[in-house]
Amino acid sequence: MAERLQKVMAKAGVASRRKSEVIIASGRVSVNNKVVTELGTKVKVSDSVEVDGVPIGGKEKKVYFLFYKPRRIISSVADEKNRKTVVDFFEDIPERIYPVGRLDYDTSGLLLLTNDGDLDNRLTHPKYEVEKTYVAKVEGIPTNDELKQLRLGIKIHGKKTSPAKTNILETDPKKKTAVVQLTIHEGKNHEVKNMFKAINHPVKKLKRESYSFLNLRGLQSGEFRPLKKIEVERLYEITDKKS
């Protein structure tokens, strides 16, 4: 039985289906020694599939890491400008891992990396509504009415955001800045920055502090730790409830 190439790649733990499509389109995948860029390509079990010259479908064990991403690091496996990426911190890890979702170049905080395509899809697909909490230093001091717009959902580029949870942690009237905690379950590009910009309080500094029940406790910027088996199981349980 033949299956779509991106589905086979996801099952093998290369990346989620969506990310696999990007990898295919970029010419990094070959089937039976021929480069394939067509997303509709179907492959059989007997076909030889390679990504960046490395065969997929081996017995590579699934691994999971929690990483404290520093600022000015790219959330990718490679960068066309040769800037440092998050996987550069994992050079001693033999498995081919990749980031779950992304954090902006100038955003720090909690980022998961894995080679488990199924879990990656669960954590990044909007239907699973996995909560992520950020702490943002913003210009000005938001009023309750302004934050209420975020709690109710605010229109950005013609689409309304899902309701967020907000909490002011600190204010500095002299510098006219505030530190605000924001919890959302969406993962669009620049989502948090765009939300604060929409209420006229641009973000000066941003950090992701937690991802579902996971946090950065015990880690310094640039450090990582493997997820415990019970943590991986709990992530699956949480997303199972949203299936």
Automatic annotation (TrEMBL):
Its EC number is 5.4.99.-. The keyword RNA-binding applies. Gene3D superfamilies: Alpha-L RNA-binding motif (3.30.70.1560), Pseudouridine synthase I, catalytic domain, N-terminal subdomain (3.30.70.580), RNA-binding S4 domain (3.10.290.10). PROSITE patterns: PSI_RSU, S4. Pfam families: PseudoU_synth_2, S4. Residues 3-62 form the RNA-binding S4 domain. It comes from the Bacteria. Keywords: Isomerase, RNA-binding. Belongs to the pseudouridine synthase RsuA family. This is Pseudouridine synthase. It comes from Apilactobacillus micheneri.
